[in-house]
Write a sequence for this structure.
């Protein structure tokens, strides 16, 4: 237990250390060279992705948060202390976004996932109140085909009753058995209540080590 506590503290310091924005890529040609290992965060629009990234890095505005779904419209790359890159991917599944933009986002995400040798892990964020949607499964299938390891992260766990959250988790665990690149463990988080952050940081650091 003591060793685990030490590892979590090391992970916290890395996430709280230097973090520099590199580039926002809305086309594949703007993606930076893959010189460092990467972890990426992806999820439906308004799933709480930006809030979780801010909470993990102990910052208020590393990733922009908005009450308007679909705010993140590009791949945003951040350098964490020259140890790894953190990638904030475009939110998906928002109905009011134009069909052309949806196609462009899908193409950008798909191309990035298939061709990024430095990508070590993707965290697929799922709202704990709603569970997996078809658009989530589509992303999961992309990751399976690209053979990119990924983990399901439930967000806003503090907004959900435990009994309902347990039901959703069981459904997701059943679904994960169908996906070759998925890890079986599901992580529960709350950006507002700081739930699950230590464990998620540690998982990320181990993925890029």
């Amino acid at each position: 237990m003591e060793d685990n506590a030490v590892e979590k503290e090391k992970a916290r310091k890395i996430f709280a250390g230097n973090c520099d924005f590199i580039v926002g890529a809305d086309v594949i040609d703007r993606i930076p060279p893959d010189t460092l290992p990467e972890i990426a965060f992806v999820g439906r629009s308004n799933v709480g992705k930006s809030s979780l990234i801010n909470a993990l890095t102990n910052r208020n505005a590393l990733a922009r948060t908005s009450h308007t779904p679909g705010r993140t419209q590009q791949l945003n790359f951040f350098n964490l202390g020259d140890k790894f890159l953190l990638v904030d991917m475009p939110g998906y599944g928002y109905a009011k976004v134009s069909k052309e933009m949806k196609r462009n986002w899908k193409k950008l995400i798909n191309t990035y996932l298939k061709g990024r040798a430095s990508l070590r892990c993707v965290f697929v964020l799922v709202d704990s109140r709603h569970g997996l949607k078809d658009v989530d499964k589509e992303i999961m299938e992309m990751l399976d085909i690209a053979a990119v390891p990924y983990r399901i992260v439930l967000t806003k766990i503090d907004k959900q009753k435990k009994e309902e959250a347990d039901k959703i988790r069981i459904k997701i665990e059943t679904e994960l058995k169908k996906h070759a690149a998925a890890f079986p463990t599901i992580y529960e988080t709350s950006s507002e209540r700081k739930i699950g952050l230590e464990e998620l940081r540690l998982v990320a650091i181990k993925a890029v080590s």
About this structure: The two ends are 20 Å apart (CA to CA).
